[in-house]
Write a structure and sequence with these properties.
binds NADPH dihydro-nicotinamide-adenine-dinucleotide phosphate; alpha/beta; 335 residues; Rossmann fold; eight-stranded mixed sheet
Length: 335
């Protein structure tokens, strides 16, 4: 039976590759939730999506109002939602100063975490009605998981502190980091990815039993050529894929990464809830340095099988997770 899947950020990188993979697999209606509808239409043409297999709905993740409008418009289509896949993100490593959304939050906090949090909450009841393997996914990252080399060896390290910064943002202060410290764009991204993974564990604890929804996060591998790295300088964008491919072995093509996320959307292999999925691909050992994930040698790169990756202790911290949940509710106006 045809499954309806919403994918945020479907017009680029991993999102676009996932649309392609689901289209190849067949049996999906894809709702492309995007900030630029014309770009998404071009992508749909480029991928040769059959007209009835997709629709495009505008979603500006830097605005809570836009998230609400999106949900209203989706509900008005009358489609039964079977999977919500939160994939869009911004990575802003090269800004000397933070950028703020019209709602007053640092951009990566809102685009990557808060707006997806709101989207998940507003679509929960609809998804729970699905009789067709309901799933809710938020894409995570090795960089938000400090018990892995990718997240634990290269500064800055993801860390939400005591969430004093997020609390201050809610109170209207122009704070840029959830931990309340000085602005560091790369850390904002990693922190938001940690928040994504913590949110999935919270969603599982709070909703899985009652709704039967499968909640998952995943690390697709290092897709070194996507537009995510648009703020990086030219030499880095040239060198990074080569380094990831030949030195660390953590590199994965956009196409393969898309197949991985499509697996989390629909495959039997990923039907367990509350899991952070990763792939045991070709990551290498260079000297004493093991570019693997969570102690699992060879994880992340091309090839390999899906496995359950252990989230970091901070990610599994229940007290912090509850606090993040409550503050996020407050931030998006749900309390
Ligand atoms: P891209 O930059 O290619 O894709 C990001 C998507 O998010 C784009 O479609 C973009 O829209 C959309 N987006 C950005 N800002 C907004 C906004 N304000 N409102 C709505 N949509 C927005 O990056 P990737 O494909 O690499 O990233 C996809 C996911 O994969 C992210 O969650 C990222 O954290 C994760 N990831 C990526 C890794 C990598 O190595 N690339 C590694 C680990 C995780 P538009 O098309 O208009 O630009």
């Amino acid at each position: 039976k045809n499954r309806t899947v919403i994918i945020t950020g479907a017009s680029s990188g991993l999102g676009k590759a996932t649309v392609a993979a689901l289209n190849n697999a067949g049996g999906h209606h894809i709702v492309m939730a995007v900030r630029d509808a014309a770009k998404a239409e071009q992508v749909a043409q480029e991928l040769g999506l059959p007209a009835k297999s997709y629709s495009i709905l505008e979603l500006q993740l830097d605005s809570f109002e836009s998230v609400k409008t999106f949900v209203r418009k989706f509900k008005a289509t009358g489609r039964q939602l079977d999977c919500l896949c939160c994939n869009a993100a911004v990575y802003l490593p090269n800004q000397p100063v933070p950028t703020f959304t019209p709602d007053g939050y640092e951009e990566s906090v809102q685009v990557n975490h808060l707006s997806h949090f709101l989207l998940c909450r507003l679509l929960m009841a609809d998804l729970a009605k699905s009789k067709n393997d309901p799933r809710m996914i938020i894409v995570g990252s090795i960089t938000g998981n400090t018990n892995t080399v990718g997240g634990g060896a290269v500064a800055p390290f993801a860390n939400l502190g005591d969430l004093k910064g997020l609390e201050a943002m809610i109170d209207g202060e122009q704070k840029s980091m959830m931990d309340g410290k000085e602005y560091w764009g790369a850390k904002c991204y990693k922190d938001s990815k940690l928040a994504n993974m913590m949110t999935v564990l919270q969603l599982h604890d709070r909703y899985h039993e009652d709704t039967g929804i499968t909640f998952s996060s995943m690390y697709p591998g290092c897709i070194a050529e996507t537009a995510l790295f648009r703020q990086k300088r030219g030499w880095f964008r040239w060198f990074f894929p080569i380094f990831m491919k030949f030195v660390t072995g953590g590199y994965v093509s956009q196409e393969e990464a898309g197949e991985r996320l499509a697996q989390v959307v629909s495959s039997e292999d990923c039907s367990e809830s509350g899991v952070y999925w990763a792939w045991n691909g070709g990551a290498k050992t260079v000297g004493w340095y093991d570019f693997s994930m969570g102690g699992v040698r060879g994880a992340g790169g091309a090839g390999g099988k899906v496995f359950k990756c252990n989230p970091s202790a901070e990610c599994r911290d229940k007290v912090l997770g509850d606090k993040l949940w409550e503050l996020s509710e407050e931030a998006v106006g749900m309390t």
